[in-house]
Amino acid sequence: MALNNIYNDILMEHNMHPDHKHKLLQASDRKTAINPKCEADEILVKKGLNPSCGDEIVLEINVVNDIIKDAAFNGQGCAISQASTDIMADLIIGKSIDEAIKLTDLFIDMIRGEETDPKKLEELDEAMALKDVSHMPARVKCAVLAWHTLNEMLKEKKQK
Length: 160
What we know:
The chain is an alpha+beta fold. Helices cover 42% and strands 18% of the residues. The protein contains six helices and three strands, in the order H-H-E-E-E-H-H-H-H. It has a three-stranded antiparallel beta sheet, covered by helices on one side. Helix 2 crosses helix 3 (79-92) and helix 3 (79-92) runs parallel beside helix 6. The longest helix has 23 residues, at 137-159. The radius of gyration is 15 Å and the shape is globular.
């Protein structure tokens, strides 16, 4: 699998110009908020780390009535990890917690090669650009870092 197949236009755009790489601020800070879509004082924060390569993110989501109103991240890592995180943030905004969990499970199954049905994978929209990562075991952890982090974050929220 050639690297140029992995680093396609979608990935490069999300890596070089991420829309969601910033910090969410509480609704009470709205006057100075980078993204004033934050409607509630509930912002969930979770750190994700891939110790094998050093990729790390801090994922933040704004949840109002079980709907993800906004998502953002900060961190550092390879193009795949950063693009995957930005693509994921795009995808989950406006989704319910249950829908976002379903999408994270679907993405992880796609990367593991366990889900290949194109009709099912259409739900992932631009995240489908990462499907060829499944053929590069060393990059799988990079691609799933944000998705695992989000999945854990949302499941913890549901348990509260």
